[in-house]
Design brief:
Layout (H helix, E strand, L loop, with lengths): L1 H15 L5 H32 L19 H11 L12 H15 L5 H8 L5 H15 L2
Helix pairs in contact: 2-6, 3-4
Length: about 140
């Protein structure tokens, strides 16, 4: 029994202190980078909601854009085209969850790398650099809350 305990102890101590292999380190680094990208993406969505409507699902813009993300009819048509069916209606733009789903579908199709600046431009292509800066500033503020 004592011999078995010694063997288990030796195996445990020698394997417990083996440094990570390069492959394990790459996988760990990739996981961290992926999680950071996901966190940034969620911050982007929160920031867009804040800039677009201050979280008001009944907000109405100047160009027939409504809801928390100020979804336009053309945006909605593009999302339905991506799905190849009428999944969303004009009324769905007032639903916060549906608006975020439409945003995700649109972005996954046109911005699969989830590039933040491209996402901002795709969401509001007519906006100026001031708009992008507003979104980025809100993201930074949210990051430290």
């Amino acid at each position: 029994m004592k011999r078995l305990s010694v063997i288990v102890f030796v195996l445990f101590t020698t394997t417990a202190f083996v440094p990570y292999s390069a492959k394990c380190e790459r996988q760990f680094t990739h996981t961290i980078k992926t999680q950071n990208k996901i966190d940034e993406w969620h911050l982007l969505i929160k920031a867009l909601i804040h800039v677009e409507s201050r979280g008001n699902s009944n907000a109405v813009g100047k160009c027939d854009d409504v809801g928390v993300l100020q979804i336009t009819p053309i945006y909605l048509q593009e999302v339905n085209r991506i799905f190849r069916k009428e999944r969303y209606t004009l009324a769905d733009r007032y639903d916060s969850l549906a608006s975020v789903e439409m945003f995700e579908i649109y972005q996954n199709h046109h911005n699969s790398t989830k590039d933040i600046m491209r996402a901002i431009h795709l969401h509001n292509p007519r906006a100026s650099r001031v708009y992008a800066d507003s979104v980025l500033n809100v993201m930074n503020r949210l990051r430290y809350e």
